[in-house]
Design goal:
alpha/beta, 9-stranded mixed beta sheet, two-stranded antiparallel sheet, 11 strands, about 30% helix, globular
């Protein structure tokens, strides 16, 4: 899985599969690069174990056992603290709700240390996926440093069981930043049609369409898509602690 650059924005409307795509692509990329993974939302270690085994991700399976898959909150109550969030080297960081934690309208309160870390991200051997609904939500400096974008438009339907929408089909595209600017200007917000579809696929480095596989569906057990980010995300230590806030039971 090749995603150009070290900072990637993952965008799409509410419920368009952004968190799903970030993990789907992120885990594949981390396995290939042999990177650790750190996120700011809850993960289920037992479901991670099943998913890594199903995908044959031996590196990530080993890192899960040895603390290389980390859940690290970026806020405490009303306070956002990104100062030391990116502390690992050779790690993929996934920051959900970047439009809240690095909001463009509150740029004066955004962490100078975190923004400095972003500028040095290549030298530190790190990668960042930031997730937001639209690009103008996030801090200008983050936008200027972003080298690629993934636009999600997964097909959903309302589920009575969930009381919300559920994903039916994968639909996402990878762009370099210059290509995404053209896509944003000429396709997003315009009338849909065959020409727009052709232009989207011409501009994209790669496009994915298709039904969810059984392995894809395992991802929905890994993260609580309807849970608020700031409600204390956690991950069980599968070697030392059998239960935690979100995870219950042994994995073996």
């Amino acid at each position: 899985m090749y995603i150009p650059g070290h900072i990637t924005g993952i965008l799409g409307e509410m419920g368009s599969g952004k968190s799903f795509v970030s993990l789907l692509i992120g885990f594949e990329m981390a396995e290939e690069l042999q990177y650790d993974v750190c996120v700011n939302f809850a993960l289920d270690a037992k479901a991670l174990y099943r998913y890594f085994v199903s995908c044959g991700y031996t590196w990530l399976l080993s890192r899960l056992m040895h603390g290389g898959i980390e859940v690290k909150p970026v806020s405490s109550g009303q306070k956002v603290d990104l100062e030391n969030w990116m502390s690992r080297r050779r790690c993929l960081y996934i920051l959900d709700e970047a439009g809240i934690f690095l909001n463009a309208r509150r740029f004066q309160s955004n962490s100078p240390q975190f923004l400095a870390d972003l500028a040095q991200i290549r030298h530190d051997g790190r990668k960042l996926f930031w997730i937001a609904q639209f690009v103008d939500q996030v801090d200008k400096q983050l936008r200027e440093l972003t080298q690629s974008y993934i636009y999600c438009d997964c097909i959903t339907k309302y589920s009575r069981k969930l009381g919300s929408t559920e994903l039916l089909f994968k639909n996402y595209r990878v762009f370099t930043t210059p290509q995404f600017k053209i896509f944003s200007d000429k396709v997003l917000g315009k009338k849909l049609g065959f020409k727009s579809w052709i232009l989207s696929n011409t501009l994209a480095l790669k496009s994915w369409y298709g039904s969810l596989t059984e392995v894809d569906r395992l991802l929905f057990d890994i993260y609580p898509s309807l849970e608020r980010i700031e409600s204390g995300p956690s991950l069980v230590d599968v070697l030392k602690q059998p239960t935690c806030k979100f995870v219950t039971g042994e994995i073996f």
